[in-house]
TrEMBL record:
Pfam families: Aldo_ket_red
A GO MF label: oxidoreductase activity
Name recorded for this polypeptide: Predicted oxidoreductase
SUPFAM superfamilies, per database record: NAD(P)-linked oxidoreductase
Signal peptide range: none
Keywords: Oxidoreductase
Cellular component per GO, a single term: cytoplasm
Highest taxon of source: Bacteria
Length: 319
Protein backbone atom coordinates (compact mmCIF):
# COMPACT_ATOMS: atom_id res chain seq x y z
CA UNK A 1 0.00 0.00 0.00
CA UNK A 2 1.16 3.54 -0.77
CA UNK A 3 2.21 5.65 2.21
CA UNK A 4 1.13 9.04 3.48
CA UNK A 5 2.49 11.30 6.21
CA UNK A 6 0.76 11.43 9.59
CA UNK A 7 2.71 13.56 12.03
CA UNK A 8 6.24 12.17 12.20
CA UNK A 9 5.24 8.81 10.76
CA UNK A 10 4.56 7.31 7.36
CA UNK A 11 1.40 5.19 7.41
CA UNK A 12 -0.65 3.33 4.85
CA UNK A 13 -2.69 5.71 2.71
CA UNK A 14 -5.85 3.99 3.98
CA UNK A 15 -6.34 3.63 7.72
CA UNK A 16 -8.87 1.62 9.70
CA UNK A 17 -11.69 2.98 11.86
CA UNK A 18 -12.84 0.67 14.66
CA UNK A 19 -16.11 2.27 15.74
CA UNK A 20 -18.12 -0.74 14.53
CA UNK A 21 -16.27 -3.00 16.97
CA UNK A 22 -18.35 -1.35 19.68
CA UNK A 23 -21.59 -2.71 18.21
CA UNK A 24 -23.10 0.52 16.91
CA UNK A 25 -23.95 -0.93 13.48
CA UNK A 26 -24.72 -4.48 14.52
CA UNK A 27 -23.63 -7.41 16.62
CA UNK A 28 -19.97 -8.35 16.69
CA UNK A 29 -17.68 -10.43 18.85
CA UNK A 30 -14.05 -10.39 19.91
CA UNK A 31 -12.93 -13.27 17.70
CA UNK A 32 -14.41 -11.68 14.57
CA UNK A 33 -12.93 -8.30 15.42
CA UNK A 34 -9.47 -9.74 16.10
CA UNK A 35 -9.54 -11.63 12.79
CA UNK A 36 -10.53 -8.39 11.06
CA UNK A 37 -7.59 -6.54 12.60
CA UNK A 38 -5.18 -9.26 11.48
CA UNK A 39 -6.56 -9.09 7.95
CA UNK A 40 -6.21 -5.30 7.92
CA UNK A 41 -2.49 -5.55 8.75
CA UNK A 42 -2.09 -8.21 6.04
CA UNK A 43 -3.69 -5.75 3.60
CA UNK A 44 -1.02 -3.14 4.38
CA UNK A 45 -3.00 -0.99 6.81
CA UNK A 46 -0.84 0.44 9.58
CA UNK A 47 -2.92 3.28 11.10
CA UNK A 48 -5.79 2.30 13.39
CA UNK A 49 -8.32 4.69 14.92
CA UNK A 50 -10.50 4.17 17.98
CA UNK A 51 -12.09 6.19 20.82
CA UNK A 52 -13.05 5.72 24.44
CA UNK A 53 -16.74 6.10 23.56
CA UNK A 54 -16.82 3.33 20.92
CA UNK A 55 -18.82 0.71 22.77
CA UNK A 56 -17.91 2.59 25.97
CA UNK A 57 -14.38 1.20 25.90
CA UNK A 58 -15.09 -2.06 24.04
CA UNK A 59 -13.22 -1.08 20.88
CA UNK A 60 -10.13 -0.05 22.88
CA UNK A 61 -10.27 -3.28 24.88
CA UNK A 62 -10.31 -5.35 21.69
CA UNK A 63 -7.25 -3.53 20.39
CA UNK A 64 -5.55 -4.04 23.74
CA UNK A 65 -6.33 -7.76 23.60
CA UNK A 66 -4.96 -7.88 20.05
CA UNK A 67 -1.69 -6.54 21.44
CA UNK A 68 0.02 -5.34 18.27
CA UNK A 69 2.60 -2.73 19.30
CA UNK A 70 3.99 -1.96 15.86
CA UNK A 71 0.84 -0.26 14.53
CA UNK A 72 0.24 3.50 14.46
CA UNK A 73 -2.63 4.02 16.89
CA UNK A 74 -5.01 6.89 17.56
CA UNK A 75 -7.73 7.23 20.16
CA UNK A 76 -9.99 10.04 21.34
CA UNK A 77 -11.68 11.55 24.36
CA UNK A 78 -14.00 14.40 25.20
CA UNK A 79 -17.54 13.08 24.69
CA UNK A 80 -19.62 12.14 27.74
CA UNK A 81 -22.42 9.91 26.53
CA UNK A 82 -24.99 11.15 29.02
CA UNK A 83 -27.88 11.55 28.84
CA UNK A 84 -27.68 14.27 27.89
CA UNK A 85 -24.58 13.95 25.73
CA UNK A 86 -22.06 16.64 26.56
CA UNK A 87 -18.31 17.30 26.29
CA UNK A 88 -15.35 18.12 28.52
CA UNK A 89 -11.97 19.50 27.46
CA UNK A 90 -10.44 20.44 30.83
CA UNK A 91 -6.98 19.08 31.55
CA UNK A 92 -7.96 16.96 34.55
CA UNK A 93 -10.62 15.15 32.55
CA UNK A 94 -8.37 14.65 29.51
CA UNK A 95 -5.67 13.12 31.70
CA UNK A 96 -8.20 10.86 33.38
CA UNK A 97 -9.52 9.67 30.01
CA UNK A 98 -6.05 9.11 28.61
CA UNK A 99 -5.05 6.92 31.53
CA UNK A 100 -8.19 4.86 31.04
CA UNK A 101 -7.54 4.49 27.32
CA UNK A 102 -3.92 3.47 27.85
CA UNK A 103 -5.03 0.88 30.39
CA UNK A 104 -7.59 -0.62 27.99
CA UNK A 105 -5.15 -0.47 25.08
CA UNK A 106 -2.38 -2.00 27.22
CA UNK A 107 0.05 0.73 26.22
CA UNK A 108 2.13 3.40 27.88
CA UNK A 109 1.92 5.72 24.87
CA UNK A 110 -0.50 6.41 22.01
CA UNK A 111 0.72 7.85 18.70
CA UNK A 112 -2.16 10.28 18.20
CA UNK A 113 -4.71 11.59 20.71
CA UNK A 114 -7.79 13.46 19.55
CA UNK A 115 -10.25 15.72 21.27
CA UNK A 116 -13.42 14.14 19.94
CA UNK A 117 -15.49 17.34 20.23
CA UNK A 118 -14.52 20.83 21.28
CA UNK A 119 -15.94 22.35 24.47
CA UNK A 120 -16.86 25.90 23.42
CA UNK A 121 -16.13 27.58 26.76
CA UNK A 122 -12.59 26.16 27.02
CA UNK A 123 -10.24 28.38 24.97
CA UNK A 124 -8.66 26.34 22.21
CA UNK A 125 -5.26 27.72 23.20
CA UNK A 126 -5.73 26.23 26.67
CA UNK A 127 -6.62 22.88 25.15
CA UNK A 128 -3.59 22.99 22.84
CA UNK A 129 -1.40 23.69 25.87
CA UNK A 130 -2.78 20.62 27.63
CA UNK A 131 -2.02 18.44 24.63
CA UNK A 132 1.45 19.93 24.32
CA UNK A 133 2.21 18.95 27.91
CA UNK A 134 1.07 15.38 27.26
CA UNK A 135 3.40 15.24 24.27
CA UNK A 136 6.30 16.58 26.35
CA UNK A 137 5.60 13.90 28.98
CA UNK A 138 5.75 11.16 26.35
CA UNK A 139 2.14 10.09 26.86
CA UNK A 140 1.13 10.89 23.28
CA UNK A 141 3.03 11.37 20.06
CA UNK A 142 0.81 14.11 18.68
CA UNK A 143 -2.67 15.51 19.02
CA UNK A 144 -5.68 16.01 16.82
CA UNK A 145 -9.04 17.73 16.74
CA UNK A 146 -12.32 16.39 15.35
CA UNK A 147 -15.36 18.09 13.78
CA UNK A 148 -13.81 21.55 13.93
CA UNK A 149 -13.75 24.68 11.81
CA UNK A 150 -10.69 26.10 9.99
CA UNK A 151 -10.47 29.05 12.40
CA UNK A 152 -10.21 26.68 15.36
CA UNK A 153 -7.43 24.77 13.64
CA UNK A 154 -5.44 27.94 12.95
CA UNK A 155 -5.71 29.09 16.57
CA UNK A 156 -4.77 25.71 18.02
CA UNK A 157 -1.88 25.24 15.62
CA UNK A 158 -0.45 28.64 16.51
CA UNK A 159 -0.38 27.62 20.18
CA UNK A 160 0.98 24.09 19.66
CA UNK A 161 1.25 22.35 16.26
CA UNK A 162 -1.68 20.07 15.45
CA UNK A 163 -0.89 16.65 13.98
CA UNK A 164 -4.25 15.81 12.42
CA UNK A 165 -7.83 16.92 11.97
CA UNK A 166 -10.54 14.27 11.71
CA UNK A 167 -13.80 15.33 10.06
CA UNK A 168 -16.34 13.50 7.95
CA UNK A 169 -15.50 13.55 4.22
CA UNK A 170 -16.75 11.46 1.32
CA UNK A 171 -18.46 11.73 -2.03
CA UNK A 172 -21.65 12.78 -0.26
CA UNK A 173 -20.17 14.94 2.53
CA UNK A 174 -18.13 17.71 0.94
CA UNK A 175 -18.15 20.47 3.59
CA UNK A 176 -14.37 20.22 4.29
CA UNK A 177 -13.76 21.52 0.76
CA UNK A 178 -14.98 24.92 1.97
CA UNK A 179 -11.78 25.75 3.81
CA UNK A 180 -10.75 22.89 6.08
CA UNK A 181 -8.91 20.77 3.53
CA UNK A 182 -7.04 23.84 2.35
CA UNK A 183 -6.14 24.97 5.86
CA UNK A 184 -4.81 21.52 6.76
CA UNK A 185 -2.72 21.47 3.58
CA UNK A 186 -1.33 24.94 4.18
CA UNK A 187 -0.36 24.17 7.79
CA UNK A 188 1.06 20.70 7.05
CA UNK A 189 -1.67 18.99 9.10
CA UNK A 190 -2.99 15.58 8.05
CA UNK A 191 -6.70 15.41 7.27
CA UNK A 192 -8.17 12.10 8.45
CA UNK A 193 -11.47 11.45 6.67
CA UNK A 194 -13.95 9.46 8.71
CA UNK A 195 -16.99 7.77 7.12
CA UNK A 196 -15.38 7.85 3.65
CA UNK A 197 -17.83 5.12 2.61
CA UNK A 198 -20.82 7.16 3.76
CA UNK A 199 -21.77 4.91 6.68
CA UNK A 200 -22.28 1.94 4.38
CA UNK A 201 -23.90 3.68 1.41
CA UNK A 202 -20.79 2.94 -0.68
CA UNK A 203 -20.62 -0.65 0.51
CA UNK A 204 -20.87 -3.87 -1.46
CA UNK A 205 -24.66 -3.85 -1.73
CA UNK A 206 -27.33 -1.14 -1.48
CA UNK A 207 -28.43 -0.54 2.10
CA UNK A 208 -31.82 -1.64 3.35
CA UNK A 209 -33.66 0.21 6.08
CA UNK A 210 -33.25 -2.43 8.76
CA UNK A 211 -31.33 -0.34 11.28
CA UNK A 212 -31.60 -1.21 14.96
CA UNK A 213 -33.94 1.28 16.58
CA UNK A 214 -32.32 3.30 19.33
CA UNK A 215 -28.88 1.77 18.70
CA UNK A 216 -27.86 2.23 15.08
CA UNK A 217 -26.78 5.83 14.47
CA UNK A 218 -28.44 5.76 11.06
CA UNK A 219 -31.93 5.00 12.36
CA UNK A 220 -32.69 8.70 12.94
CA UNK A 221 -30.09 10.27 10.65
CA UNK A 222 -31.79 12.43 7.99
CA UNK A 223 -29.97 10.84 5.05
CA UNK A 224 -31.21 7.39 6.04
CA UNK A 225 -34.83 8.39 6.69
CA UNK A 226 -37.47 8.29 3.95
CA UNK A 227 -37.93 9.82 1.49
CA UNK A 228 -34.24 10.80 1.62
CA UNK A 229 -32.95 7.24 1.78
CA UNK A 230 -34.69 6.17 -1.44
CA UNK A 231 -33.50 9.30 -3.23
CA UNK A 232 -29.92 8.71 -2.10
CA UNK A 233 -29.99 5.04 -3.09
CA UNK A 234 -31.25 6.01 -6.53
CA UNK A 235 -28.46 8.55 -7.00
CA UNK A 236 -25.77 6.14 -5.83
CA UNK A 237 -27.18 3.37 -8.06
CA UNK A 238 -25.77 5.27 -11.03
CA UNK A 239 -22.35 5.26 -9.37
CA UNK A 240 -22.70 1.52 -8.79
CA UNK A 241 -23.40 1.05 -12.48
CA UNK A 242 -20.24 3.01 -13.36
CA UNK A 243 -18.16 0.88 -10.99
CA UNK A 244 -19.55 -2.33 -12.47
CA UNK A 245 -18.77 -1.12 -15.98
CA UNK A 246 -15.19 -0.20 -15.02
CA UNK A 247 -14.57 -3.37 -12.99
CA UNK A 248 -14.16 -1.47 -9.72
CA UNK A 249 -15.62 -2.27 -6.34
CA UNK A 250 -17.94 0.48 -5.13
CA UNK A 251 -15.96 0.93 -1.91
CA UNK A 252 -12.63 0.95 -3.74
CA UNK A 253 -13.76 3.65 -6.15
CA UNK A 254 -15.20 5.79 -3.33
CA UNK A 255 -11.91 5.54 -1.43
CA UNK A 256 -9.89 6.30 -4.56
CA UNK A 257 -11.94 9.47 -5.04
CA UNK A 258 -11.21 10.62 -1.47
CA UNK A 259 -7.50 9.86 -1.85
CA UNK A 260 -7.38 11.87 -5.08
CA UNK A 261 -8.49 15.06 -3.30
CA UNK A 262 -5.08 15.64 -1.70
CA UNK A 263 -1.89 13.89 -0.61
CA UNK A 264 -2.51 14.98 2.99
CA UNK A 265 -5.83 13.08 3.22
CA UNK A 266 -6.03 9.67 4.94
CA UNK A 267 -9.44 7.96 4.83
CA UNK A 268 -10.32 5.58 7.66
CA UNK A 269 -13.10 3.24 6.54
CA UNK A 270 -14.34 0.68 9.01
CA UNK A 271 -15.80 -2.80 8.93
CA UNK A 272 -16.78 -5.48 11.43
CA UNK A 273 -15.56 -8.39 9.27
CA UNK A 274 -12.41 -9.23 7.34
CA UNK A 275 -14.50 -10.18 4.30
CA UNK A 276 -15.10 -6.54 3.35
CA UNK A 277 -11.42 -5.59 3.29
CA UNK A 278 -11.07 -7.02 -0.19
CA UNK A 279 -13.45 -4.32 -1.43
CA UNK A 280 -11.00 -1.59 -0.43
CA UNK A 281 -8.60 -2.13 -3.34
CA UNK A 282 -8.41 1.31 -4.94
CA UNK A 283 -8.29 1.76 -8.73
CA UNK A 284 -6.19 4.41 -10.44
CA UNK A 285 -8.71 7.05 -11.44
CA UNK A 286 -8.04 9.01 -14.63
CA UNK A 287 -9.13 12.58 -15.21
CA UNK A 288 -11.96 11.20 -17.31
CA UNK A 289 -13.01 8.91 -14.46
CA UNK A 290 -13.04 11.80 -12.02
CA UNK A 291 -15.13 13.90 -14.40
CA UNK A 292 -17.65 11.09 -14.84
CA UNK A 293 -17.94 10.57 -11.09
CA UNK A 294 -18.53 14.30 -10.69
CA UNK A 295 -21.25 14.17 -13.35
CA UNK A 296 -23.00 11.24 -11.70
CA UNK A 297 -22.59 12.45 -8.10
CA UNK A 298 -22.24 16.24 -8.25
CA UNK A 299 -21.26 18.13 -5.15
CA UNK A 300 -24.32 18.50 -2.94
CA UNK A 301 -26.21 15.54 -4.42
CA UNK A 302 -27.13 14.02 -1.05
CA UNK A 303 -30.71 14.33 0.18
CA UNK A 304 -30.84 15.33 3.84
CA UNK A 305 -28.31 16.75 6.28
CA UNK A 306 -25.44 14.55 7.44
CA UNK A 307 -26.62 14.98 11.05
CA UNK A 308 -30.02 15.60 12.58
CA UNK A 309 -30.49 18.44 15.04
CA UNK A 310 -30.16 15.92 17.89
CA UNK A 311 -26.75 14.82 16.51
CA UNK A 312 -25.24 18.26 15.93
CA UNK A 313 -24.22 19.13 19.48
CA UNK A 314 -20.62 20.39 19.63
CA UNK A 315 -20.04 19.99 15.88
CA UNK A 316 -18.47 23.21 14.64
CA UNK A 317 -20.28 24.67 11.64
CA UNK A 318 -18.54 27.38 9.66
CA UNK A 319 -20.41 27.80 6.36
Amino acid sequence: MKQRRLGKSNVGAIGFGTMSFGGIFGATDNATSLACLDAAVDAGISHFDTADIYGMGVSEQIIGTWGRQSIHLATKCGILNGPPRTVRNDEAYIRQCLEGSLRRLKREHVDLYYIHRRQPDVPIEELAGTMGRLIAEGKIGGYGLSEIAPATLRRAHAEYPVTAVQNEYSLWTRLPELGLLQTCRDLGVAFVAFSPLARGMFGRAPLKRDFREGIDFRDTNPRFVEPNLSANLAAIARFRDLCAARGWTVAGAALAWVLAQGDHIIPIPGTRTADHLGDWQVPELTAADMAEIQRILPVGFAHGDRYGDHQLAYVERYC
